[in-house]
Amino acid sequence: MSLAVSIPLGVVIARERISHPWQEYRWRPISVFLDAPSIDDWRELRRTDDVVHYHAATLPLELHRKETTAYCVNLANGEPSVYVVTREDPESGSEHPLDVHLVTASPFEAQPHASMGLDSVDCVAMPERLVFIIRDFIDKHHVEETFKKRRREPHLEPEKHLFGQEPIFALSERRAMMGKVNGAKGAKQGKTENE
């Protein structure tokens, strides 16, 4: 396998009738499938009284060797998932108000999209064959990084003041020295006045 792999995934979106005063339907990703043909427009797959399933888009699932840690986290979380990022555009005038923006197996890549106001991130079950492909990719490219605690180096040179101001510690030392000198002068003056 190469350092990056692209796998075409078909995304299935369901339009479900809901009882809501302002919205007649809810649109949500429900699954992905491998070996998906590329499509230009949504294709109806199945219809019942309240639900219609569409093949909404075919997008590449990109696997990168530097993201194998994220794939390990995904596979270790119990149920492996594919994260589908959609954007809703009700003003598009289209019969289908969702645009499928991204599919990813990395929870770290999906996370920033979840905090954006325009994007919605949904988890769908990862097909078993895709789990095997990702495990094989991890086995070939994953490098375990050991934690290295950074050791601080001691600061040996005094700080050079570049902008005309002397450092605070130098100022306080100078004032302390001036106080000692002034204190010694004051003590001598007191002795001469008393004599």
Description:
This protein is an alpha+beta fold and 195 residues long. The radius of gyration is 33 Å and the shape is elongated. The N and C termini lie far apart (99 Å). The chain has helices at residues 68-76, 107-114, 128-141, 168-194; strands at residues 4-17, 25-34, 43-47, 51-64, 81-88, 98-104, 119-125.
In short:
The chain is an alpha+beta fold and 195 residues long. Helix content is 30%, strand content 33%. It comes from Filomicrobium insigne.
Features:
three-stranded antiparallel sheet, 195 residues, 4 helices, 33% strand, 2 domains, single chain
Order of helices and strands: EEEEHEEHEHH
The structure class reads alpha+beta
Helix content: 25-40%
**Overall structural domain count:** 2
Strand percentage, roughly?
25-35%
Mean pLDDT: 82
| Main sheet summary | 4 strands, antiparallel
Count of individual beta strands:
7
- Which stretches are poorly predicted, pLDDT < 50 over at least 5 residues? none
Distance between the termini: 99 Å
Radius of gyration: 33 Å
Widest β-sheet, arrangement of strands: 2-1-4-3
What global shape is seen?
elongated
Number of helices: 4
InterPro entries: DUF3305
Pfam families: DUF3305 (PF11749)
Organism: Filomicrobium insigne
Protein name: Molybdopterin-guanine dinucleotide biosynthesis protein A
